[in-house]
Amino acid sequence: MGIIDRLAQLQDPSHNEPEMRKKFEKINAFVRTVVGNREARLRVPYARDMILVTMDGKELPLDYLGTGIHEVIILAVAGTVLRDQVLCIEEPELHLHPLLQKRLMRYLNDETSNQYFITTHSASLIDIPNAAIFHVRYEDGHSRVSPAYTASEKSSICADLGFRASDLLQTNCVVWVEGPSDRVYVNHWINHCASELVEGLHYSIMFYGGRLLKHLTAEDPEVDEFISLRRINRNAVILMDSDRKDSGDGINTTKTRVEEEFNKGPGFAWITEGREVENYVPPETLEKAVKSVHRDVISLVNTEPYDHAYHFQKDGEDIVKRVDKIKIARAVVEEPPDFERLHLGKMVQKLVEFLRGCNDILKPTAG
């Protein structure tokens, strides 16, 4: 049975096969993502001689949309209609834009049950998260296969393929944060607002370190001692602690300068409304997390938006200021975020909309 016939079965299943209809809707959701149209749908006509795409009030054969889109949809359909099979795909990048390559791999991984073996020369596919990578070389008349586990081994593959660092596909957006605990919070907030956005696929989080901020600029200055974040990636957002002790305090000149530069776009600067990122966490949630990591804690010392969030009291001791921020952050994100606290919801929504724009992802419709 061919792909068109199998797709027709998903389109019009019998009354006792609701799972087939769900698969057909998953394919249509993928089609809408690929073509960037919320109304796009596939349809197999009665004659079963082609696959049609309906959108913008028109219905056209699938191959009218171009070789790349035609190929990626056919591969997605094949991966859906076949179950628990071993499928071999040879160099899918030949007609696919790098963005389509990543969207296809994510769909096959999340929505299908097959085992895929893919031969490729694409750095985009080599960089797919959780993929098992094997380096195939032809040496002395024989093909030699070796697994690539580490970043250096994967880099070696790219070097053999002739890629330079400037040739490799960058992430579509970089979110700059001060340190690892901030990364935990940002990923947590993004996941609750837009679970379709995946770190490493749609964006990357990088660290600048608070004390290094005075050496950074978002523009492209001719002064060599400044590091240009825009040369790493033009689409960038930076998250900075305000370090304010009171709501009436101003922002220091370094952060003001960086804010102005990032707000020129593409991207923006996010300066916390409270003193630091941790002030976005409700005090009761933060205290619970601190106590789970530091068992001898009695209570947090301060709970106001402009207090040091992590200062806590031990029994019979002075105020303790040193904590394991990463472990506490991981405990915090076991609880849902409070987007009503300070202006967290507004800023996370702004970030999510920017990330969607950088990746050409449509905002999900209600229902």
Poorly predicted tracts of residues: 220-227
Oligomeric form: single chain
Overall structural domain count: 3
Find the structural class using helix and strand composition: alpha/beta
Identify the notable features of this structure and list them briefly.
16 strands; alpha/beta; three-stranded antiparallel beta sheet; Rossmann fold; 12 helices; 367 residues; 3 domains
Please explain how this structure is put together:
The protein is of the alpha/beta class. The chain folds into 3 domains: 3-118, Rossmann fold, CATH 3.40.50; 132-169, no CATH class; 171-367, no CATH class. The chain contains 12 helices and 16 strands. The chain has helices at 3-11, 18-35, 67-81, 98-111, 123-126, 151-160, 180-193, 229-232, 253-262, 283-293, 325-332, 344-359; strands at residues 41-43, 52-55, 58-61, 86-90, 115-119, 133-139, 142-148, 174-177, 204-207, 216-217, 227-228, 236-240, 267-271, 297-300, 312-314, 319-320. It has a 4-stranded parallel sheet, sandwiched between helices. Strand 15 (312-314) and strand 16 form a beta hairpin. Helix 1 crosses helix 2 (18-35), helix 1 (3-11) crosses helix 3 (67-81) and helix 7 crosses helix 12 (344-359). The protein is elongated. Residues 220-227 have low confidence and may be disordered.
Summarize the structure.
The chain is of the alpha/beta class and 367 residues long.
Q: How are the SSEs placed, and which strands pair?
A:
Layout: H1 3-11, H2 18-35, E1 41-43, E2 52-55, E3 58-61, H3 67-81, E4 86-90, H4 98-111, E5 115-119, H5 123-126, E6 133-139, E7 142-148, H6 151-160, E8 174-177, H7 180-193, E9 204-207, E10 216-217, E11 227-228, H8 229-232, E12 236-240, H9 253-262, E13 267-271, H10 283-293, E14 297-300, E15 312-314, E16 319-320, H11 325-332, H12 344-359
Parallel strand pairs: 4-5, 8-9, 8-12, 10-11, 12-13
Antiparallel strand pairs: 1-2, 2-3, 6-7, 14-15, 15-16
Helix pairs in contact: 1-2, 1-3, 2-3, 2-4, 3-4, 7-11, 7-12, 10-11
